[in-house]
Specification:
Blueprint lengths: L1 E5 L6 H8 L6 E5 L3 H7 L9 E6 L6 H8 L5 E4 L8 H15 L5 E5 L6 H9 L2 H5 L3 E5 L3 E13 L5 E6 L3 E8 L5 E7 L14 E16 L2
Parallel strand pairs: 1-2, 1-5, 2-3, 3-4, 5-6
Antiparallel strand pairs: 6-7, 7-11, 8-11, 9-10, 9-11
Amino acid sequence: MNILIVTGGNIEIDFALDFLKEKKFDEIIAVDGALSFFDKVGEKIKKVGKLTHIVGDFDTISAEILKKYQMDAHIRCHSFNPEKDYTDTDIALKLAQRMIGAAGGTGSILILGGTGTRLDHTLANIQMLIGPMRQGIECMIADSHNCVRMIQKEAVVRKPFGKYISLIPVTECLKGVDLEGFKYPLRDRTVYLGESLCVSNELAGAEGKIRIREGIALLIESKD
């Protein structure tokens, strides 16, 4: 099962539509203010799948737009009190994880609008990637400049999102790091939290292989 979550950070419509044009989703979740994105793109977004869930406390979307989607019998509305423990994006991500788990546990999640001017929300959204990773679900946050995943053990990069590929420790250190197929290869290195050893690498060929014996890292593919 493949799920798209569109949440309330910065979304460049042209980028989003171009990035999504070759993708198909079984479920699409709109988070609160992101409903305005769907209202603007209209029929164009339906090529990748149907909006099936709306989630949030709905404090950043107009009542008129919200009512339009609440009236759609094909869309399930998950409404929450603004004074809650978790962010709307966190609630939406947990919903996506449950749906994939109920469908057999195999799938992927793409988050658009997960970055923006609110650094607290951006960092919170990035660290939330650990939940799907632990569940064995591929999950990424993408915007017009970066694509972010959380990985452990191994990953392969082909046709990178941008020129630069960075590996940033989440745990205290990454042990036994091998980078194969990169401009700056590594062999059995330890990379420590707080160091920039694996920032701004590049592919040397068609693909790059990353192996980590111990630890968790953010894999960030970036454009200039």
